[in-house]
Amino acid sequence: MVNEVEKKFVGLQSKNVVLSNALVRSAQGLTLAEKRILMAAISRMDGVMKPIQITAHEYAATFQLPIRQAYEQLRDAAKVFLSKHITYYGEYNGHKGVFQVNWLSSVFYTHNEGFMSYCQI
């Protein structure tokens, strides 16, 4: 029988995420936990740039992790995502070059409250 947490978060598990080659290449430097969080956040965006909230319960249910480990991974990723960047080639004002942007513009987490908010992926 499906428990209440699994029922509540089945929407996240059923979503597909499509990534560009540039995003896939940039994600190669991320840990498994960071990639999971990134995919969970992208699946929530529905093509619109907006702040995303991921709860530890949702993350734990989706990836079958103990709740404490889920919260630790969310907390640790919050610190790391601000220091890592995406690199891709493109054109700006008629000049070809390399773009580098941070994965996130800001992160908000509350100690021991079980959720993280990621802004502007």
From TrEMBL:
<keyword id="KW-0614">Plasmid</keyword>
<dbReference type="InterPro" id="IPR000525">
    <property type="entry name" value="Initiator_Rep_WH1"/>
</dbReference>
<feature type="domain" description="Initiator Rep protein WH1">
    <location>
        <begin position="17"/>
        <end position="116"/>
    </location>
</feature>
<protein>
    <submittedName>
        <fullName>Replication initiation protein</fullName>
    </submittedName>
</protein>
<dbReference type="InterPro" id="IPR036388">
    <property type="entry name" value="WH-like_DNA-bd_sf"/>
</dbReference>
<dbReference type="InterPro" id="IPR036390">
    <property type="entry name" value="WH_DNA-bd_sf"/>
</dbReference>
<comment type="similarity">
    <text>Belongs to the initiator RepB protein family.</text>
</comment>
<dbReference type="Pfam" id="PF01051">
    <property type="entry name" value="Rep3_N"/>
</dbReference>
